[in-house]
Design brief:
There is one protein chain. This protein is of the alpha+beta class. The chain has 2 domains: about 5-260, Rossmann fold, CATH 3.40.50; about 265-400, Coagulation Factor XIII, Chain A, domain 1, CATH 2.70.50.60. Helix content is about 25%, strand content about 30%. It contains 9 helices and 20 strands. The protein has helices at about 25-35, 85-90, 125-135, 140-150, 165-180, 195-210, 225-230, 250-260, 410, and strands at about 5-15, 55-70, 70-75, 100-105, 105-110, 185-190, 215-220, 235-240, 240-245, 265-270, 285-290, 300, 305-315, 315-330, 335-340, 345, 350-355, 365-375, 380-385, 390-395. Helix 3 (about 125-135) crosses helix 4 (about 140-150). The longest helix has 16 residues, at about 195-210.
Length: about 425
């Protein structure tokens, strides 16, 4: 019988909406007295829904889970599904409201950039401190410290206080510490997204080796489905604090994608969509995006995708263009496409522009993109004017095609033009 590393039974975690306490005894008494009289709380910020303030919700709602020693388990789900809360409970950062967690072995965690590091200490001192937290003595740490420094690629800065490290250096050293010290269970929460691609590959290889050859148990949370595929042999899908699937990785990804890819609607209102904090949306603003002549955004590879945008401007800008960075529904990048200049912005004028795009080289599947309106200066530098954070979904479905059934897992999402025989025997 395989050894159980983590056993979770009916795990629940409840949180209270809004701030807890006013910061001083006086503020707390003011809030209590206002509630007793049915008055507005003088310490609640303007714009906060008073009816929601103080309500409770279940971040985790009845989790039952067994994880065997040596398993590499992915945990995926939408934002707010309970992934980070689960890892924080396993790492003993927070306590459960109800339920029981049994853990066999030492846990090493990376829940966010810089977790477990003291900014005033050097990288070397933080290695010793983390080892001590895991229960290792000085001799055990010294036996591994050179491997940690080498893996982290931070040797030049190892005796510099970590408060001076970049976020990437933080992650490199933190991962090196977590992976090399004598922990039986590695808990990783979307931390590799900060590191460069080369280091990400090295980290995934280290975690995979730790699981396969050293018998370490790995719990890995990520929104990058490619890294989940690469590392995990089992995957759990969380939704609203509950497990909706626990099993084979590809099936888990398919379920996650199906529940988080919109309804393939044809029109998007972009007027009030969230934008980056700085300039986008001020001088030029996209108001709507619409796929034309469709009830649902489903297209054959052999037909053009036609769409229109409605937009306006507050200043005159020549030569506007639009581009899409297109991703598959699992967030993996497919490619980028851009238009030629489609018009000039005129202050105070609302316009409608029409476009078409040829999806001939897309494999069947569901995709999304964000729209970006930009222009180029004399140096061909990209000047973005609007970039609404609204995922626009479409699907390619070519059921009448002959040939191989497309397998995205192995072949990707770009279907190249066919091979043509120019001379037959």
């Amino acid at each position: 019988m395989e050894e159980i590393a983590i056993q979770i039974t009916n795990l629940k975690k409840q949180y209270k909406l809004g701030a807890i306490g006013g910061g001083t005894l006086t503020a707390d008494l003011q809030s209590w007295w206002a509630r007793k009289r049915g008055k507005a709380d003088p310490n609640v910020q303007l714009g906060i829904d008073a009816e929601q303030f103080g309500k409770r919700f279940w971040a985790l709602d009845g989790i039952d889970l067994s994880i065997r020693k040596g398993e590499a388990v992915g945990i995926i789900g939408a934002n707010g599904a309970g992934k980070s809360t689960l890892l924080k409970i396993l790492s003993r950062v927070t306590a459960p409201t109800e339920g029981e967690v049994k853990i066999k072995g030492r846990i090493s965690s990376m829940l966010e950039v810089g977790t477990g590091f003291h900014g005033e200490l050097t990288g070397r001192e933080n290695i010793y401190m983390n080892g001590a937290i895991l229960g290792m003595n000085k001799k055990e740490i010294e036996a591994k410290i050179e491997d940690i420094i080498e893996f982290s690629e931070c040797r030049e800065f190892i005796d510099t206080p970590v408060k001076r490290y970049s976020s990437g250096m933080y992650v490199k050293l933190a991962f090196a510490v977590a992976a090399h010290l004598d922990a039986d269970i590695l808990v990783m929460d979307e931390v590799l997204a900060v590191g460069d691609m080369k280091f990400q590959e090295k980290c995934l290889g280290k975690m995979g080796d730790g699981s396969a050859s050293e018998g370490k148990t790995v719990l890995y949370v990520s929104h990058n489905m490619n890294t989940i595929r690469q590392l995990c042999t089992r995957c759990i899908v969380l939704e609203r604090g509950k497990i909706i699937y626990d099993g084979e990785t590809e099936q888990a990804i398919a379920i996650y994608m199906d529940r988080n890819t919109g309804d393939l609607r044809t029109r998007y209102d972009l007027s009030h969509a969230e934008r980056p904090l700085l300039q986008p949306g001020k001088s030029v603003r996209l108001h709507s995006f619409e796929f034309l002549d469709k009830e649902h955004a489903v297209f054959d590879r052999k037909e053009k995708i036609r769409f229109k945008i409605e937009w306006s401007a507050t200043e005159n800008i020549p030569g506007l263009r639009i581009y899409f960075l297109i991703r598959f529904a699992d967030s993996s990048v497919v490619g980028m496409t851009e238009s030629e200049a489609f018009g000039d912005a005129e202050a105070g004028v609302r316009k409608t522009s029409y476009f078409e795009f040829d999806p001939a080289e897309f494999a069947d599947g569901r995709y999304y993109f964000f729209a970006d309106v930009f222009s180029m200066n004399e140096s061909r530098a990209h000047l973005s004017y609007d970039h609404p954070y609204e995922k626009i979904y479409f699907e390619i479905s070519s059921s009448n095609e002959t040939g191989l059934v497309w397998q995205s897992k192995y072949w990707g999402h770009v279907r190249l033009n066919p091979i043509v025989c120019v001379e037959k025997n």
